[in-house]
Amino acid sequence: MFAVEEINRNTKLLPNITLGFHIFNAYHNDERTLESSLVWLSGQGPTIPNYSCERQGKSIVVIGGATSELTVSMGTLLELYRIPQVTYGLFDPLLSDPVQFPSVYQMAPRDTSLPLAMVRLMVHFKWTWVGLVASDDSRSEKFLRDLQEEMVRNDVCVAFIHKIFTGLTEDERHHSDFLKKLSDSTASVIVIYGNTDVLLTLRFSEDPHTLIYRMWVTSSHWDIAKKPGYIYFDNFHGALIFSEQTTKIPGFKHFLKTIHPAKDSENIFLQNFWNSAFGCTSEIGKGDGAVCSPNASLDTLRLSYLDMTMSVQSYTVYSAVYAVAWALHEMFLVRSEMESNSNGTISGTYPWKLHSFLKNIQFNNSAGNHVILAEKKSVANYDILNYVTFGNDTEVLVKVGEFISEMPLGQDFIIQQKAIVWPRTWGEPLPSRCDKVCSPGFHIKAQEGKPVCCFDCAPCPQGQISNQTDRDQCMKCPEDHYPNTERIHCLPKRVTFLAYEETLGMALASIAASFSLLTALVLWVFVKHRDTPIVKANNRDLSYILLFSLSLCFLCSLFFIGRPTAINCLLRQTTFGVMFTVAISSILAKTITVVLAFRATRPGSRSRRWVGSRAPISLVVFCIFIQVMLCAIWLLLSPPFPDADTHSDPEHIILECNEGSLIAFYSVLSYIAVLALGSFTVAFLARNLPDTFNEAKFITFSMLVFCSVWISFLPTYQSTKGKMMVAVEVFSILSSSAGLLGCIFIPKCYVILLQPQKNTKKFLKNNPNS
């Protein structure tokens, strides 16, 4: 009505021609739809096919088809006469087939952004388990495919898909199936897509509680508003509606405020609507209601009856009327030689002649938008409306967000969460999920054979955390951090090493210093009694060297205690290797001295020249030289260096000395082991030689202790980490050194200090067993 009146006032569009229109009922039933079409074709009289009884006001274009079913039902008959049919419903790919529907023109564009907009909403509120409800038609089928593809890309899963059929005989059975499917599903968010009348049964459910426990998401093409007077009008309270943004048409609101059936008494449609909306009657004595007020206005009606803003569907109808008007205008320009009849009709205006003009029509409407009737793609923008009902039987649509498809990702979706009124059982945004939430400290573990949204929750692996819910993967903590017990946060690792301040370090350092002092005291005893037989026996100089090296062996363990530095790391293993080589080579030389002494007693033995000479000292120097060369090569090629071990202990950073080359390290130890094995072998063979001060027995036992300590050291050293590994090596150094000191020298000190009478030549000469 508004578009026709506007066109008739426009002197530049169809000048000297007045447009009119007829309104016919469109039933959602094939037989009734065909009947309405025949009434339009035949006139107001009997519906006689191929006859037209209407002599005046013959229409040449049909604007109709809110649904594809209506369009197809009408098109079957209208195509026989090649009458153009302009539809104002949603775009349907099926109707764009020029072979099957050559006379159908779709006013709505092919929109591709609605599925993306809805999935943006799901992702924002973390709704990953969503049910889909749609009418059973090709357009809804295409929407469901696009929506599911977008949901898969964003890891949103389909809980169920339900299609509502249009057959009236199947409505009750399918409706009960749908309610059962809905009540059994764990999905709390349902997307609805389709036309109003096919989905109408959802609004009048016999079990409304099944519906109001859900969040409904739909588009403005499904009229979610209540039916007046229906008791369960708030089934969809809190629903979110995507309404395509349209440009305001100037003068439309003013037209709605000023329109009144009294101004157009011949408009039966407006009179019937007015009586129904206001609950009144136009004449006194007719009907049960009061007489309609002459001052009544449509802008006072509730949303249930009329939305004062121009909807997308209304905007499409408005554009369709203008498209027809401009097509007629172009046709009359081409046929300007034609004259009008006296009654105002156009002679020779046949519907089929309008096709060539409709196909190519382009124009700018009063809102300034460029309109093209030919098939086109567009990316629409959407307002997100919140449907809110009140206890006084009123309802409103409140804008709470928008989706702007032209904006970059991240800025295209805007939602005012605090402004949303949620369903009555919600009160706040609730998740819609297949499974429980994976709390922080856990990550999602997919279940085989189930959708990606249905998963198990597995604890984060060692060294990883998850500080958010539903993390696909846990995050690794930095090397200098470790996870807390709940594996939610990363805590800084504490630096640790074998320090002097702690009990273990202090105890080992005290033991090392005490044994080193004890060794120095033994050396002082031996120097003081250097002329006694027991000191002179088995090479006095070698005893001095052995005691001095043992004292340093105890002290070299101090390099292993304290914060590792470059100097410490360089001296630690090399000092230990050289000092132990001096000690073991001295013992080897002492053992060989015993053997040579007994060999020299034989007549004509060549061993006499080695007894008492500097040969044992030379052997010690030679053995030390080899170890020094090994250490020098080690320090030159791959020297030890300070290092931080962040992996062995999950809660500590262990400061240690990296050996640089394990081959060099074990070569040094192996060389000491060879010397110790040689000393043990020679001492074992010489243990029964008759001598008053024969050290072979003591050396054999000391080497047995030494080898036992270091054999047990190797597996223990490999199995421990951090400062305990250092403590194991320090303990091995102290225990093996103490074993040498105790087994070889304690018996001699006992004789020197407690039984000095046995340490004289007189005692030895008078002793028959000597």
TrEMBL record:
Domain G-protein coupled receptors family 3 profile: 498-748
Membrane topology: Multi-pass membrane protein
Subcellular location: Cell membrane
Principal location listed in the UniProt entry: membrane
Record's keyword terms, sorted: Cell membrane, G-protein coupled receptor, Glycoprotein, Membrane, Receptor, Signal, Transducer, Transmembrane, Transmembrane helix
GO molecular function: G protein-coupled receptor activity
Bilayer-crossing regions: 504-527, 542-562, 574-598, 619-637, 663-686, 698-718, 730-753
Domain GPCR family 3 nine cysteines: 432-483
Recorded superkingdom: Eukaryota
Cellular component, GO annotation: plasma membrane
Matching Pfam families: 7tm_3, ANF_receptor, NCD3G
Domain Receptor ligand binding region: 2-388
PROSITE patterns linked to this entry: G_PROTEIN_RECEP_F3_3
Family to which this protein belongs: Belongs to the G-protein coupled receptor 3 family.
PANTHER family: CALCIUM-SENSING RECEPTOR-RELATED, VOMERONASAL 2, RECEPTOR 118-RELATED
Protein name in the entry: Vomeronasal 2 receptor 604
